[in-house]
Amino acid sequence: MALSLVRMTTTTPERSATYSGVLAHQQFRVLFISRFAAIIADTLRILALSVLVYATTGSALLAAVTYGIGFLPQAVGGMLIGSLADRLPPRRLLVAGYLIEAVVALLLAGLQMPVPIALCLVAAVACVTPVFNGASSRLVAATLSGDSYVLGRSMSSMSSSAGQLLGLAAGGATIAALGARAALAVCAALHLTAAGMVRLRLDSHPAAVAARRLRGTVTSTLRGNRQLLTDRRVRALLLAHWLPAGLSVGAEALLVPYTTVRHLPAGSTGLLLAALPIGMLLGDLVVGRLLKPQTRERAAPWLVALLGGPLLVFLSRPGLLISLVVLAAAGCGFSYTLGLQRMFLAVLPAELQGQAFTLLSTGMMTAQGLGPVLFGAFAVWASVPAAMATSGLLVACTSGVVSISQRRDTKP
């Protein structure tokens, strides 16, 4: 049974939803809590495996590769098997995803495998991650509607930021107390908990598209991606999501060398890295709760400008305190995506919703994987502060892309 699609207009006044009202939906609550546990587990796994690889090899390069190995491979899965998000029942997909993550964490914890094999294992799981994210997003769209859907997406974003912060904080303490391998076992336990919660508490939903066989998955995915990307409304809104986020990560990736260049106090890197997700939490909370739906959508281009504009300050090589304020302010700008959520859902074909969310997630991860590479290379040619400021300038320029995508949303 395909999900019904009702086109939502952005001109009719609508009563704002509340976070408490969204959490009152039992099905969304299960998705929210299980995803929060999984994000903590993912962050813990990344941190523990990076520590383990560095302790084994002594290579800073391999430790850095380990930290980012879960991003770029997602492009493969999103482009080739994304249709599974619509062709398989979502509860089954989510349970399978969490179980796979748990098994991989247990293997990493219990086996002393060569580093290349461990990295390939993590990369293989990353290839299918967008499918699970797409299935989860489709369920959120099926569970919530109108402004409740927007706040549901906001809460998903906040859970991601909070989960990363908690995972980093608890991860360091767990590794220090138990060791990296024991921390990986804790990661597996969290994934098993998420799988059990979804299996026992989430209702069974049918696939969006009936599929008697899965041999045509790649063909179906390529055809669906082509249909989505040739629709100018969908394409414009995808780019409006991808470009600002991908470009802004270029500055974030340079925070470690920036602390060295500026000779900032020990421990500054952790504080600077935490400032962005804290800003993201505040931005989602304020924009999602205090602004009315129509105001939120009109504010999206200005929030993109907020995401990039403050980063220009890095051209003057600010100290720790100003840097923290700048990064927190920029992080608030990530809430621009809340002004695009209803528009994006409204232009999607019902039978391709899961695949569209998979494509959205894939593009975000790919852009965030490429941004650090591009601006890292630019920093070598120019300087670290110049590269960070350039990142902010380009992000601010993409506010025009967001504005255009919103105008195209009303045109078939």
Question: Could you give the topology of this structure?
Answer:
Layout: H1 19-23, H2 26-57, H3 60-68, H4 74-80, H5 84-87, H6 90-110, H7 115-143, H8 146-178, H9 180-201, H10 217-230, H11 232-252, H12 255-261, H13 268-290, H14 293-308, H15 320-332, H16 341-346, H17 353-381, H18 384-397, H19 399-408
Average pLDDT, to the nearest integer? 83
The fold-level CATH name of the largest domain is Growth Hormone, Chain: A
| Second-tier CATH architecture of the largest domain | Up-down Bundle
The major β-sheet equals: none
Radius of gyration: 21 Å
Q: How would you sum up the global shape?
A: globular
Distance N to C terminus? 26 Å
Query: What's the CATH superfamily of the largest domain, by name?
Result: MFS general substrate transporter like domains
Number of spatially distinct domains? 2
CATH class of the largest domain: Mainly Alpha
Low-confidence stretches: 1-12
What can you tell me about this protein's structure?
The protein has helices at 19-23, 26-57, 60-68, 74-80, 84-87, 90-110, 115-143, 146-178, 180-201, 217-230, 232-252, 255-261, 268-290, 293-308, 320-332, 341-346, 353-381, 384-397, 399-408. It is an all-alpha fold. The chain folds into two domains: 20-208, MFS general substrate transporter like domains (Growth Hormone, Chain: A); 220-412, MFS general substrate transporter like domains (Growth Hormone, Chain: A, Up-down Bundle). The longest helix has 33 residues, at 146-178. Mean pLDDT is 83; it is low at 1-12.
